[in-house]
Amino acid sequence: MELSERKQKILRAVVEEYIASAEPVGSKTVLRRSGLACSPATVRSELADLDREGYLEQPHTSAGRVPTAKGYRLYVNELMRERELTHEETEAITSKLRGNSVRPETLMEEIGHMATELTSYPALTISSPTKATVKRFDLIYLDPNSFIIVLLLSSDGVKNKLVRLPFSFTENTIKRLSAVFNSSFTGIPEEQITPELINSTERAVGDTMGLTSVIAGFVIETLTTSHSGGANVSGEANLLKLPEFKDPDKAHKLINYLSDSKNLRALTGQGEYGDVRVLIGPENAALELRDSSVVLASYNAGDGMRGLIGVVGPTRMDYSAVAAKLGFIAEGLSRLLGGGSAPPSGFGKLMIKGDDRDV
Amino acid sequence: MELSERKQKILRAVVEEYIASAEPVGSKTVLRRSGLACSPATVRSELADLDREGYLEQPHTSAGRVPTAKGYRLYVNELMRERELTHEETEAITSKLRGNSVRPETLMEEIGHMATELTSYPALTISSPTKATVKRFDLIYLDPNSFIIVLLLSSDGVKNKLVRLPFSFTENTIKRLSAVFNSSFTGIPEEQITPELINSTERAVGDTMGLTSVIAGFVIETLTTSHSGGANVSGEANLLKLPEFKDPDKAHKLINYLSDSKNLRALTGQGEYGDVRVLIGPENAALELRDSSVVLASYNAGDGMRGLIGVVGPTRMDYSAVAAKLGFIAEGLSRLLGGGSAPPSGFGKLMIKGDDRDV
DNA sequence: TTTAGCACTCCAACTTTCCGAGTGCTAAGC
DNA sequence: GCTTAGCACTCGGAAAGTTGGAGTGCTAAA
Lengths: 359, 359
Prior knowledge:
Two copies of one chain form a homodimer. The first copy, chain A, is an alpha+beta fold. Helices cover about 45% and strands about 20% of the residues of chain A.
C-alpha cells in the first residue's frame, strides 16, 4: 500500500527530527519541519494513521511520535534524500587513503578509525576469508641452526617466519628443501596439504630431522589463519555519548558483543561490493543488536576477496550521511586494493540495500 | 610518623572493605572485619585520627570513611598482604603462554585479553621502542617486474614487502642489489642510512632505475616503525560495570584517553623488569587518570627491550590480586621472550614500587 | 584510655505535587 | 468529505516534601 505524499512528508519529517533530537516528535514540530500548509490537527490525524499502520509509535499516550523499525525502513528505502559529501569530507577520505603507504597490517585499523571519526559511531572492519594458496616458496639460510621461511600468497601477501632449531643443518639441505617445497606446495589449497603429502616430501628430500613437518606446519598455519578473515572495532566509547546508551549496562552489553570478532564476522553477508547494506534494529539476527542499527559497505579487496566496513549505532542514526560516507570509503578502498578490476556499474551511486528477510 | 598497630589494622580493614563494597565504611563494619577487641566508639576515635592525618576521608559528615590516595599508598606499601595466586590462576596463565605458538603480531593482544579476563579491568600492553638494525638482508626475485624484500632484524623479527614496479629488471640485478645491501645496510641504525649512503650504493650497483631508493625507503620505514613500540588496550567495557563509572561521561573520557596509543606510551617509565609499579589516583601525571589507578608490570622482551603489561581501574582496586596476577604474567612473558638472560634476583617475589614523585 | 549513651547530621529512597507538552475527540466550516 | 478550532484529558518528569536509618562526635562515667 502506498502512502499519500503528505504522509510521506510527515513520516520523513518525524524520522529526521527524531534523528536530530532523540525526542518524540509532536505535531507542531512536524509542521515546522515539513513546511506543510495545514494545521496541527490535520497532522495529528495523519500521525494517528501512520501510528496505526505501524510506521510510528508513541512511548506513551500524550507523547510525540517515534519511528518504528518499519518506519525507518521505509525512510531508508524511499524517503531518504541522498546526502552529498562535502568537499572537505571527500578530501579527508581520499587523502587518507592516498597518504597511507598501505601497510596491510594496520590499514584496516586506520580505516576503521577514520570511519569512527567521520560518523562518530563505533566502526568495524571485516576482511572476508580467503582461499589463499602459496604462490611462491623460499627458504633463506641464516646459520646452521636457523633459517627464514618466506611465503608469497596468491593474494600477494607475504608471510614469513624465523625458524631456529636445536640441531644443525647445512645450507644445501635448506636449498633442497626450498626447491622441493616450491614445486610441491605451491598453488594448492590448505586442505590438500595432507600428512601423505608431507611424508612423501620428507622422503623426497631425504629429511630425517623433521624439518619438513616444521615448514609444512607453518604453511598450514598461514593458510588457515589468512583463511579466517580479520575483524576489528574502534570507537566503541562513542556510544556512551548517545542518550540511548545512558544506561551503562546497555552500552556494556553492546560493546562486549562487538569486541568478539566472531560476532563481527557473523555480519558478513552476501552482496556485491559497492553495496551499502542497512540493518535496522530487529532486522539484525543477533539479539544484542536488536535495538541498534548497522550500516555496512562492502569493498573489493582484490583477488575476488570482499571486505566490509561498517558502523553500529542506535536505530536513530543519520542513515543518509553514514551510508554516503561508508560508501565513499568503500569505493576508495576498492580502488586502492581491488587493483585493475573495474567496479560494478553504478559504483559510487550508492545502492542502498536492505535486508531481505521478513521483519 | 609511624601509625600504631591498631591504626594500621583499622586502616587496612577500611581499605579492604571499601575495595570489596565500594561503600563508605563505618566503625561497626571495621570492627567486624578487623576482629579488634574494642568498642565501636574506640574505633570511631581512631577513625577520626586517621581522617585528620589524611589517610581517610568522609564523603560527608555522618557517613563512613573512604580511603584517600595517601591511605591507599600506605596500604599498598606496607599493609597489603601478598596475594597468593591459586593453582587454577597460575595454570591458566602458564598454559596460555605455553599454548600460544608465539605469533608475535597477536601475542600481546592475547596477553592483554588474558589480563582483562583475570582482573576484570581494562588491560593495556606496551612494547618498548627498540633501536633495531638489519641483521640480514635478502631480495627474492619473482618476475621481471617484482621482487620481495626480506629483512631480518636484530630483534629477530622478520619484515618483508612485495615490490611491484612498472618497469622491468633482471634476476641478476636483483641478486647484485641483494648482495650490496646485505653488506652495506646491515648492522647500522636508522640514522646512519643517509642520502649519501643511498647514493653511493646506487652508484656501486650501477642502478639507474631507482631500485636502490625504493629498497632503502623500505628499510628506513621498517626501522622507524619498529622503533616506536606498539601499544594496545582491551576490555575497556569492563569499566562500565563499576559503580565509579556509572556516569557514562566519566567512562567515556577515560576510555577515549586509553584508546590513543600516544597516551599509553606515556606510561612507560624507568624500572627494571620484574617490577610492579602502582600509580594511585593523583599520582598519575595525566589528568584523565587522576581518579583512577594504574598497575604496571614490566617484562623482559628480549634483546634488552622492556615491555609493560598493566591494568587501569578505580582507585578502589584490588591491588594485591592485580599486582600478583600481572607480576606472574610478566614473569612468564619474560621467560617466553627474554630468552636466555636470567631474571633479576627476586623476580617473582613481586617488588611493588610506587611512584617517586611527591604527591 | 575505653566505653556507653545520646543528640545530631545527612543522604537516599520514597511520596506527593505540579506543570506542560501533546494527544484524541467533537463540532463547526469550507 | 476533508480540514480546523476548541477543549478535556493523559502522562511523564521535574521539583519539593517526607521519612528512616546509618553513622558521627561529644560527654561523662568506668
